[in-house]
Design brief:
about 130 residues, three-stranded mixed sheet, globular, DUF779, DUF779 domain-containing protein
Length: about 130
């Protein structure tokens, strides 16, 4: 199995479940930040338009995860884990009214992991879930 580029904690999965119950299918987009503590934005699926200037990194808990292509150049050697912490973020992300915010925890891939990476796709060419 290829090395996943993005993971999710069980705490973040619980928050995703709450948001999905209220908003339906969800998606994530990481459009800023350079390191641990950056906040990905959570939207109702399709609410944020992605295209060829975005990269699809995979799915977390049934949600597509995208990043701007320019930012991916900085993060392509890094495995991201979406977590959730108490506190109000400064964004339009869906979790903000819950008094929590999603954040990124990261680590560099090992050389062995980089030999078998999950593929990425342009935001307008990512695989549709069956």
């Amino acid at each position: 199995m290829p090395t996943p580029r993005v993971l999710v904690t069980t705490a973040a999965e619980a928050t995703i479940d709450l948001l999905r119950d209220e908003h339906g299918p969800l998606m994530f987009h990481q459009s800023g930040g350079c390191c641990d503590g950056s906040s990905p934005m959570c939207f109702a699926k399709g609410e944020f338009r992605v295209g060829g200037n975005d990269v699809w990194l995979g799915r977390i808990h049934g949600c597509d995860f995208f990043m701007s292509a320019s930012q991916f150049e900085y993060w392509k050697h890094t495995q991201l884990t979406v977590d959730v912490v108490k506190g109000r973020g400064a964004s339009f992300s869906l979790e903000i009214p819950l008094g929590v915010r999603f954040l990124i925890r990261s680590r560099l891939f090992t050389e062995a992991e980089e030999q078998d990476m999950a593929p990425v796709f342009a935001g307008d060419e990512y695989p549709v879930e069956a």
